[in-house]
Amino acid sequence: MIASLRGKVLRRTPTNVILDCGGVGYEVRISLYTASAIEGQDEITLVIHHHFSQDHQALYGFNSESEKQLFIHLISVSGVGPSSAQLILSYMSPQETEIAILSEDLAAFKKVKGVGDKTARRILVDLKDKISKGSGESPILAAPSNNTMEEEALSALLALGFPRSQAQKAISRVHDSGTGPTTVEALIRHALRALSQG
């Protein structure tokens, strides 16, 4: 099993990175939280969860062990797969996710695409004790470097499973609101909020 990877970033998007580790390229899926934490770094270390399922396997990378453990807790809940867990940790930081669980904030989880009332309730019931005891702490390849911030954000939203038309409208709404995000990650976060509000 792969516990961690340290290497040079060959390509990156807000939802994945390709790391060169000793001449071998590893594609690793990441949350927006981790994407923000490693922004601008050419060489990084990621804590890894190697996920196996019947039809495929994938590497999920995290900026910290605590984020990885929270991801593992989330995918232990019936109805929450790795893609949903990645999306939850993209919509909320690990700290915000823990707070939402401990405060039984059902609405926070229902805003996440693909998480309905039943699944949100299951997350709260299944994880509240685990979090209180331990609290403390198909994606696409990178677009060309001359792409605009909006194009990168759109690519990330498509990789997270949103229809193109909805993703484009959400990005437009963010710009129309005058929020003016200065990074791709911030733009995606605001767009996710816009998508959750319909």
Structural class: alpha+beta
Distance between the termini: 41 Å
CATH superfamily of the largest domain: 5' to 3' exonuclease, C-terminal subdomain
Q: What general outline do the C-alpha atoms trace?
A: globular
Q: How does this model look, in words?
A:
The protein has nine helices and five strands. It starts with a strand and ends with a helix. A hairpin with a 2-residue loop joins strand 2 (16-21) and strand 3 (24-29). It has three domains: 4-62, OB fold (Dihydrolipoamide Acetyltransferase, E2P); 65-134, DNA polymerase, domain 1 (Orthogonal Bundle), CATH 1.10.150; 149-196, Helicase, Ruva Protein, domain 3 (Orthogonal Bundle), CATH 1.10.8. It has helices at residues 32-37, 65-75, 82-91, 94-102, 106-110, 117-134, 149-159, 164-176, 184-196, and strands at residues 4-12, 16-21, 24-29, 43-52, 57-62. It is an alpha+beta fold and 198 residues long. Residues 135-147 have low confidence and may be disordered. It has a five-stranded mixed barrel.
List keywords for this structure.
alpha+beta; DNA polymerase, domain 1; Helicase, Ruva Protein, domain 3; 3 domains; five-stranded mixed beta barrel; 9 helices; 5 strands
